[in-house]
Amino acid sequence: MSELRELYQSVILDHNKRPRNFGEVEGANRSADGFNPLCGDKITVTLDLEDDVVKNVAFDGAGCAISTASASLMTESIKGKTIDEALQLFEGFHELVTGNPKIEVDTSGLGKLTVFKGVREFPVRVKCATLAWHTMKSALEGSGKIAKTE
Ligand code: ZN
């Protein structure tokens, strides 16, 4: 189990140090802002949506290691996916980090996102991990509202 923990940690540290898809999508047709007041994490997600497919996605902002790594992995996971697939990943990820630690979740299909499984043991960190996902969701839904983790 400790090896698994180390792996989780190294993926999160790597994505925090070198976030993927950091910046802004040029010619983005969707965007949303997110804020996690508990920790101070701020994020902007920009998306290029074409025919229900996420052609490109990027994030910008500043936050703790968990929120940055989560945003980085979120962009990697949803790029090239349809809206439905992206929302399905949102559901899966949400369950992964908010579920009862004693109940095993089906992590098939989540790929690298499973590194966030340990977050469910730290309720304060859940909002850091889900911020980018809530923001992505509101960008997809085009509500234009600021995503809050509350
Ligand atoms: Zn945070």
Folded structure, characterized:
It is a single chain. The protein is of the alpha+beta class and 150 residues long. Helices cover 43% and strands 19% of the residues. It has a single domain, classed as Alpha-Beta Complex (Sufe protein. Chain: A), CATH 3.90.1010. Strands 3-2-1-4 form a four-stranded mixed beta sheet, covered by helices on one side. The longest helix has 19 residues. The protein starts with a helix and ends with a strand.
Number of strands: 4
Q: Please give the share of residues in helix.
A: 40-55%
Stretches where pLDDT falls below 50 for ≥5 residues?
none
CATH level 3 topology: Sufe protein. Chain: A
Strand content: 15-25%
**Secondary-structure-derived class:** alpha+beta
Summarize the structure.
Helix content is 43%, strand content 19%. With 150 residues, it is of the alpha+beta class.
How is the topology of this model organized?
Elements: H1 2-17, E1 30-36, E2 41-50, E3 53-62, H2 65-78, H3 83-98, H4 123-141, E4 147-148
Parallel strand pairs: 1-4
Antiparallel strand pairs: 1-2, 2-3
Helix pairs in contact: 1-2, 2-4, 3-4
Zinc ion (ZN) binds at residues 36, 39, 41, 63-64, 66-67, 128.
